[in-house]
Amino acid sequence: MKTKNSDASSLSKTKTGIEGFDDITYGGLPTGRPTLLLGGPGSGKTLFALRFLVHGAQDCNEPGIFVAFEETSKRIVANAEVFGWKLIELQRKKLFFMDAQPSPELIQSGSFDLGGLLAAIGAKAKEMGARRIVFDALDILLALLPDEASKRREVYRLNDWLLKSGLTGLITSKASGNEASPFSVQFGFMQFMVDCAVVLNHRVTLGVSQRNLRVLKYRGSGFDENESPFIIGKGGFDVAIARTQGRMTGEVSLERVSSGVERLDTMLSGGYYRGASVLITGFPGTAKTTMSGAFAEAACKRGERTMFFSFDSDGAEVVRNLASVDIQLERYVKNGLLRMISARTISGSAETLLVRIKTLAREHQCRCLVIDPVSTLAKVGNELTAHSVAERLIDWSKADGMTMVCTSLLDELDGQSEGGTPLQISTIADTWIHLNYLVQAGERNRGLSIIKSRGTAHSNQVRELILSDAGVTLADIYTAGGEVLMGALRWEKESAERVANEVAEVAGKLKLVTLDAEEAVLEVRAKSLQTELVAKQVEKTLLHRTTESRKGALSRGRIRMQELRGGDVPLPVSKENVRVAKGRSR
Amino acid sequence: MKRHFKFRLYTAGDTGNSTQARFNLAAICRHHLPGQHEIEIVDVLKEPKRALADGVYMTPTLIKLAPSPVQKLFGSLSQTETVLQALGLEIIKT
After folding, report:
1. Which of A51-55, A399-403, A508-512, A569-573 has the highest mean pLDDT?
2. Beta strand residue intervals within A385-536, DSSP E
3. Which of A119, A123, A124 sits opposite B12 (nearest CB)?
4. ipTM value of the model?
5. What is this structure's pTM?
6. Mutate which of B23, B24, B47, B74 to disrupt the A interface (most A C-beta within 10 Å)?
């Protein structure tokens, strides 16, 4: 099996099927070598070992042998049934349980060795082609050995045998309670011998149980050195890991998804980014749940599988309450698109919650996730881990491309500061929407503002959030004289403006009518003037013509007169005639 | 009345413990059960399946098959007292 990590290319690794663990070790346990798994009572050693075998038998076609020194195989099989592992089915071919518990009737006299056991296992391993082997609770067997020397001898024998057999081995053993050195004296030398050692521990901090896993050593391979929390849940063994830098695999999307409130989408220039983590903060009753409900409804409308974690109230109650503001979630719950999780009763560490959330989300294959409120993580006893859990929650949802809306309660006693949330996740969230109250003129109104939204142009304005049976809307608020107006004051202002608008409109209409009338008058006048003009022109032409004809008639008349008088030389009308006439008169 | 003892000793080759057990068993039989015992030695290294079938994992292991009840002992049989007690031979002796 090739590993992801280049520094370990020489070392082949065997996957345990415990996802987080395979990530921490960059691929799993060293193939063909023994690994030591240490832990106190009830720390999950047997479960870890069993998961390793089941994964091999079920998914990798690598049969395995389980050598039980402590619990009988029957009990182990019965216990594992809870996790849905079909051990009985696997037992036929790929999984062999060897009950090697020293029975109480067995009498011991003198020293013994594991030679026979190993020979028997060797034969079985050959027969079934086993690739994996677990020695569960080796300490039980070693306790029977009379002295340190023989204990050491048998451990070496086992180690040698494992190396020769080429089986990937897992040896579990109880560890002392001392956290600094989990190896008990008799196992002190074992840590030097094995190539890989893993420690499981189970602590109770302020009444909250915390399980952690840590890889102590891993020869020839890199590994995540920190303690990683894990839980024993429905699916068996889940290790929560913090993705270290360079392992972020989340795809960055430019797609926008609706926030469920139309005007908010506009304010965010299109909505949230797909895969973004959105934080909605506010005091109790500022409609955080409503906002997240709107988001869930919008997601369901798009046909996306959605999950709603409600830590404050019952899922059914949330559905009912949201219906009052026209957020109809019931039908989506019914058709299975939306899953409401009432998590009020889930107690446990922040880690437990995180793993629960992850498991359920994966089960539901959800694309949109609502956590209401995420501040639950910081309940008493979890202060130390809550921050990192919240970070990992965001990391994980991003890596899975899930769009997540978390709400976070702000403590009213902290004052009106917007400095940060209890978990400080405000710094890692992509979009942060803050809801607050504005008490003014005897009213308490909700205001919404976008504090930040990465990679998005967003409105800088505070909007009033209005909840009504018609849904959730945002309204512009008025600023008058340096004061923000909301609620009734805003309504008053709005009505005043509306009245003013109407008056202006009527006045405008009136003016238009007047102008129309004036225009008509002018048009009429223009027409009459035109007519008058034509008449004048006609008159003028007429005048010209009469003048001409009169002149003609006059000259003709004079000539005729002279002719009639007959006395004078007819006077030509030419200049000569005129001169002659003049000369004559002189 | 002499009871007949039937033993089966599982050993792992010639390891120290197995060799010791063979010697110890032989000595006990010689001293306490002369002429009334039968020893079968099973070398697990040679017949591992038999060990599997019989559920014998620690070597050496001694099984007293007869007389009943069947009794199992493991170890090099170096503590003679314990062995005798387990086999019910102490009572016969005294």
Report:
1. A508-512
2. 403-409, 431-440, 443-453, 463-468, 471-476, 478-480, 483-485
3. A119
4. 0.85
5. 0.63
6. B74
